[in-house]
Structures are given as C-alpha cells and as structure tokens.
Design goal:
Blueprint (H helix, E strand, L loop, with lengths): L10 H9 L8 H14 L3 E3 L11 E3 L1 H19 L5 E3 L8 H7 L1 H4 L1 E6 L6 E3 H27 L5 H7 L1 H22 L3 H10 L16 E4 L2 E5 L7 E5 L4 H5 L2 H7 L6 E10 L14 E11 L4 H17 L8 E5 L9 E9 L2 E12 L1 H10 L5 E3 L4 E3 L2 E8 H12 E7 L5 E7 L10 E5 L6 H12 L5 E3 L5 H11 L3 E5 L1 H6 L1 E6 L5 E5 L3 H9 L2 H5 L3
Parallel strand pairs: 3-9, 19-20, 19-21
Antiparallel strand pairs: 1-2, 4-5, 4-6, 7-8, 9-10, 10-16, 11-12, 12-13, 13-16, 14-15, 17-18, 21-22, 22-23
Helix pairs in contact: 3-14, 4-13, 6-8, 6-9, 8-9
Length: about 550
C-alpha cells in the first residue's frame, strides 16, 4: 500500500453538487458527521463494546449493515467466481505457522513510521503528517484557480493560468520540492529525514498546537499471541495482517486438486488484523477488518500484461455500481512494496477526499519463492506445453470490505428538499444504495391496522420472503414509514389499502423518484426481481 498521496481538494464544490445532489451547501466535515450519525441511528454500524465505552477503531455491524456487507461480498465473490472460469475460491485459517510471516517479510518489514507529540501525548504517522502538509499546499493552488475561474468565467484557461500565475507557480515549486524530499526519505527509509521535514515545515500537533516532536520510530503492525497447552510450551503466533499468505501456502493444493492451468486465480474473503498507529474516519481504517482478495498466478514475463488487464477489470467493477466514473481514479504508486514491480490503487472520492478502496499489485514470484526457501517444499508449476517447471508470478487485487461498505454508504447518502402534500418543505434523507446491494429489498405497509390489511400484508410477505429480504411495518403514519424506509435504503414500498380487497391491487412506491404506481399483487415479484437482481451489475462488467 502506497504511503504517498496527491490529494485533489477541488472535489468539495463538485461533491456537494453532483454526488450528494443537494439543493443546499454543506461542509464536507458536517456531511461526514451526518453520515456517521446516520449509520449509527439506523442500525448499520455500532461502536464495539459501546456499553463499556467502546474500543478504538473496532466496530460492529448492525442488522442493516451486515446485510449490506454480505451483499457487497456476494457481488465481489460472484463477479470473481461466476464470471471467470479460471478463478476459484478458498477460505484459509486466521492462525498460521509463524514462519510464514518470516518468509513473507512481515516480521522484519511490516512497519509504519511513528512520531509522538510530547505535549499532547498523541501518536501520529509521520508520513501522514507530511501528506497532509502537501495537501494544504495543493489546496492553496486550487483556491487561486477557483478565484480566477470566478473572475474570468467562460474565458478562463486553467492550464495557462497554472503555468503563468506567480502564486500558483510559487506554491507548485514548494509542493514539488517537498514531495521530492519526502519521496526520497520514504524510499531510503530515512527516519531522521522524515522528522526533519516535519520540523522544517513547521507542522504542529492538531491537539496541542505545538511542534514538540519525538524522534521517528518504526512501528510493527502485527498482533501476536501464544498458542499451546502450557505456558512453557506455547508458540508465539500472529493474527494475520493480510489474507494473501493463506492463498500462497495453499497455491499448490488448489492447483493439483483442481487440475488448474496457468493462468488461474484463487479468491478469498477473510478477516485480517493490524495494530494501526492512527485509526480515523470511522470504519475507513480499522484494527479488525475484512479483505476480498484474489491472487492470479501467471507465467513469468506476462505479469505486467495481466496487471493491466486486472486493473481495468477492477475499475469497471467499481464503476458498475453507478456512483459516477468521475468519482474514481487510479493512483500509481511512487514507492513500491518490496515484493512488487508494479502497483496501482483504485481511489474513490470520499467526503474527506480521494482515498484508496482497492489495490492492484504485480507481486512477481517473491511470495512463492520465499515459501519455497523457508519450507523446503517445491512450489513450482509444470507447464506441459513448454515442458518446463517454474515458480509462477502473481498479480493481486485486494479490496477492503469495510472501506467498500463506507464507500457505498457515502455515495448513496442524499439529503433532498421535498414539498409535502400540504405545501410545506421538508428534508428527505435517503440512502440510494444500488437495489442489488440494498439490505432490505421490499417493505410491505398496511395503510391501517384493521379491515384485514395487516393479514393481507403478511400474506404478501410470506409469498415473497424466499426471494427477497422483506420488512413489515405498521407503526406511524404512512409518510413517516416511507421516510424510515428511505433512510435505510429500501428500494420499494408496497402499500395495502381499502382498494386492495376489491381488486387485489397495491401501490408500489419507488425510493429514488418517490413515484407511486398501482399494480396487481401478482406483478410485485416480477417488478422487484428485475430491479434487485445482481445480473444488472454483472451485465455492466461484460
């Protein structure tokens, strides 16, 4: 994972206008606070151990959150397994032999640069502090550009302005100088230089406001524990910090038992654990998280071709959700991991800026070669066409489930001004989650709690519950119930009323448009099934 980021701060006005589509402006910090509060209020995400004041950077998924999370995983899993005949799945154990992590390099090199402020006693990642400083400089540039755009209107030439304006050029020079210095320090693992950059840039602690920094130290991110029946005979093992190694140590088992031919992939969804220095932005960075990962084994020399192939496939997978292609971008890594010869991130425009949701890496033959060396077992593939054996190269795609969850919720969250039947204006909060991913597909609402309407509603649910996750709701006025279903992202509401008994029709309400339509009861399944099917997403991937 790259530690270098160039933040684009021009997203703020666009995000408000296009992605959230509000009729009023909202600061992005306020938007994110509302998003977090919404997740907690409507049963999506809870703080872990909340009644005991919680655990930092550990969260539980509520009744709607777990459904959305499972649907995201299904979308990823089926897109890998069903749409690619040369990709299969496994589920490896969290506990693995400790030598695995020695071979992979995690024991010696899985570190982040840590720095403490002596006054606030708060701990920070040194690289993140510098990245934020780079973002501030870029923000100054973008402010100058925005002012000029307002001043000159349609005649504004942004490229020419950036190339000639004195203030822009001055700040751009500062950015490039700092970026070059930062990149070299990271690539050289020069901790003293990282601290000196923080000092020279006069970066202050956000809490204390002081520049009283400690030296920069390396911080290992792995959790360790003991396994054994007695204290004396216990073996030190690790909670896995990634799921990839479980795939690598099973590569030959899968290849032989599945009679797989190169190229082929192994997919896995599983928990991983990292002792993060700083875990912020809700569930974006967690100490216990879930990964959706696929390792694609290829012939040496073809890895970069396959890297480009999977890079495009994965971007298409994200864009198929319909959140706007302009809200995604590739970020090429400037500092490669020790095992990689190419790496790129898929970044999404969150309310707090562009951030990584998925990484694609060309891992070369590092992992399999290391496991060969440390285990003493041959992990080679015999190519019958070439009549030779070789250690395959690997192309990896890895996406964080929790980050993907946050991305979907952030992209789906809308606040809209609506006019009620009485002419009064109101704010509607709605989660426009793609119907295929929505936790609840259909809510069935009796207009009143009498005249057989609850019984009819229950009968409709009974006929549909094997096909869709349905919800029955009879509390409060019909308007309040619609609002409640909007807030949890339910795509369809079915209302039972007095007319239903006479002609067996119901009112179907569409979440996104709030339009209502009278339809026969027997058409409910057809209409809902068409809109909530995963096939709608998969077709966009072909």
């Amino acid at each position: 994972m790259s530690t270098l980021r160039r933040w684009n701060n021009r997203f703020i006005p666009y995000f408000c206008r296009s992605n959230i589509q509000k009729s009023f402006n909202m600061a992005q910090e306020d938007l994110f606070k509302k998003l977090v509060a919404h997740c907690k209020e409507y049963g999506y995400v809870f703080q872990s151990s909340e009644i005991y004041d919680g655990l930092s950077a550990v969260y539980d998924y509520g009744q709607y959150g777990v459904e959305l999370k499972n649907n995201i995983k299904k979308y990823w899993w089926d897109s890998m397994i069903l749409l690619h005949e040369n990709v299969v799945g496994i589920d490896s154990a969290i506990f693995m032999h400790p030598t695995i992590w020695k071979a992979s390099g995690h024991v010696d090199a899985f570190n982040d640069p840590l720095i403490d402020n002596k006054d606030s006693k708060k701990r920070y990642r040194a690289d993140v502090l510098i990245e934020e400083q780079l973002a501030k400089i870029e923000e100054k540039i973008n402010k100058e550009v925005d002012k000029a755009r307002k001043r000159f209107g349609e005649a504004f030439d942004e490229a020419q302005f950036r190339a000639t304006n004195a203030r822009v050029l001055e700040n751009q020079e500062k950015w490039e100088e700092l970026h070059s210095r930062f990149s070299k320090a990271l690539n050289d693992s020069n901790l003293e230089e990282l601290r000196q950059i923080i000092v020279d840039q006069e970066i202050v602690c956000p809490i204390s406001g002081t520049r009283n920094w400690t030296e920069v130290r390396q911080f290992n991110l792995m959790f360790s524990t003991d396994m054994g029946s007695t204290a004396d005979g216990a073996m030190k093992i690790f909670l896995r910090p990634e799921t990839a190694q479980g795939i690598f140590v099973n590569y030959l088992n899968v290849q032989k038992t599945g009679r797989m031919k190169i190229p082929f992939g192994i997919a896995q969804i599983g928990k991983a654990f990292r002792n993060e220095i700083v875990a912020r932005q809700f569930i974006f960075r967690m100490r216990e998280f879930e990964q959706m990962e696929m390792q694609f084994f290829v012939e040496p020399g073809t890895e970069l071709e396959w890297f480009r192939h999977w890079k495009e496939i994965r971007m298409k997978w994200h864009q198929a959700l319909g959140f706007g292609s302009e809200n995604y971008r590739f970020h090429e890594h400037e500092k490669l991991a020790h095992y990689a010869n190419a790496a790129v991130d898929v970044e999404y425009r969150f309310p707090f800026g562009f951030k990584e949701v998925e990484g694609i890496h060309s891992r070369t033959d590092f992992d399999l070669s290391q496991h060969e060396q440390y285990s003493g077992k041959k992990l080679r593939y015999f190519d019958p066409e070439k009549n030779e054996s070789y250690v395959p190269y690997v192309v990896e795609t890895s996406i964080g489930v929790d980050r993907m969850f946050l991305q979907v919720v952030a992209a789906s969250y809308h606040e809209e001004e609506v006019v009620g039947a009485n002419g009064e204006k109101d704010i509607r909060t709605v989660l426009r989650i793609p119907p295929a991913l929505a936790p609840v597909k259909l809510a069935v609402l009796p207009l009143v709690k009498k005249d057989g309407q609850p019984e009819k509603a229950r009968a409709i649910i009974d006929s549909l519950k094997f096909d869709f996750n349905c919800q029955y709701d009879e509390k409060d006025s019909i308007g309040k119930r619609y609002r409640r279903q909007d807030a949890i992202g339910t795509p369809f509401c079915i209302t039972i009323d007095h007319q239903t008994e006479t002609d067996n029709t119901v009112t179907i309400r569409y979440r996104d448009t709030m339009e209502q339509e009278r339809i026969p009861v027997e058409k409910i399944r057809e209409i809902v099934a068409e809109r909530v099917s995963m096939k709608n997403l998969f077709r966009r991937l072909q």
